[in-house]
Amino acid sequence: MEIQFLGGAREVGRSAVLVDDALLLDYGTLTGEPPQYPVGRPEPDAVVVSHGHLDHVGQVPALLRGDRRPPIHWTPPTAELARVLAEDSLKLRGYECTFTESHVQRLGEVEERHGYGEPFVVEAGGTDYEVTFFDAGHIPGSAHVLVDSGGRSPPGSRAESDDGDTRLLYTADFHTDDTRLLSGSTARPDADVVICESTYSDVTHEDRSRVEERFVETVRTTRYEGATALIPAFAIGRTQEVLTVLEDTEIRPYLDGMGQRVTDIVRRHPGYVRNADALRRAKSGARYVTGRDGQRERIAADNEAVVTTSGMLSGGPVLRYLSMLRSDPTNRVCLTGYQVEGTNGRRLLERGNCELDGGVVPVAARVDLFDFSAHADRDGLRSFLDDYRGATVLVNHGDRCPAFAEELRGDGYDASAPELGERVTV
User: Fold this and answer.
1) First and final CA of the chain: distance in angstroms?
2) Radius of gyration (Cα) for the chain, nearest Å?
3) What is the pTM of this model?
4) What domains does the chain contain, in order, with CATH numbers?
C-alpha cells in the first residue's frame, strides 16, 4: 500500500490522504486569507470522508468537476453537514471558490451513507477495499476510517487471497473523553498502519467540568455587570456543546448564524449524540436570531449571551457583533476553540486587535479562551496509541508532528511524520 499526504502533513488543515493513487481519504480546506487547498489535482476512483469539518471535507465538491463522478462515502450526519459547509463557501466573498452550485448538487448523485461498524466495499484502482467507520467522538458523525486492502470483504465481492493485505487506520480527528455532546472514542480496531492526528500532542486538557464551571461563571458575571458575552463557536459540534452546557443554567442564549441550521441537522440524527434529550432541551432554550429589523443591534445593547459563528472570527454574524461590542471593556469575547495561526481569532487572542470593516482595529472587550477541545490531548493520544505499539505510526494534523513522532520513537514506536506531498510505502 502506498500512501501520499496531499494535505494535513505537519499542519492543521486541508487534510487529504491518497491511498494507492486511487482511494482518497478526506479533502479539506486550510482556513486563512486566502484559504489553502490540498496539493496536486487527484482524480480518485472513490472518496471516503471522516467527518464534516471544513478542514476535512471543504474541497470534496471540487472532485466532481467535469465528468468525474467518484462515489463519496460518509456517515449520515457528515453527508448533511458537508452540504451546509459547501453552500456557505459559495456565499463567501474575497476569493474564488473552487466549485460551483452544480458541483454541490452532484454530491447527492454519488454519495453513499454508512453507519458505524458496518463494513462496506470500495472499488478503487482495481482493488476492492473493505472500509469500516468507527465512532471517533469528535463531532456528530465523525469517524475513524479503517481501510483493509483485501481478504475481509463480504463473500463474492473480491478475490479470496490475503497475500499482501494491509489494514490502515486513519484516525482523522478524535477525542477519548466524554463531553456533554458525545461519548469519547473507545474503538481500537486491529491495524498494521495508523495515521494519527496530533493536534494537542503537547497539551493536557483542563478537566472538562472545571472548564464548564469557569465558562458559565464568566458568562453569568458578564451579564450581571450589565455587559454582553459574545461566544464565537464552530457551527458544527462546538455550538451544540456550548448550548448543552448552558442548558443546565438560567442563561437562555441567543443563537445566530450557521449554528442554527447545524443544530437542527444534528437533532435529526439522535443516534449520533450522547444525550438527544439534553440537546433537545438546549435547542428549546436558545433564542434564534433572524437578523431582521435591527435585532442584532438590540441584542448587543443588552446584557445577553450570544452564541454565533464563526468560531475563529473569519466571517459570519460574529463580526457584526464584535464591531458593536469591541469598545466596551466590560463586554467579553469567550473563545471556545483552537484558533489557527493566521486567523482573526488568533490575532485577537495574541495581539488584542482584529480585522474589521476593512481595517485592523483594537478590541477593548475582555477576551477569554475556554478549552472545549474535541481533540484528544497528549494523554489521550498516548492512551490510544498504546494499542498500536506493533504498528507503523504516521503522525499528521498537528503543529509539531516531527517532535511528536520523535517522542514516540523514543518510546519504541515505529513512527514518522511525513512531509506535505510525501509518499510512504507500507
Assistant:
1) 5
2) 21
3) 0.93
4) 2-203+375-425 (3.60.15.10), 208-369 (3.40.50.10890)
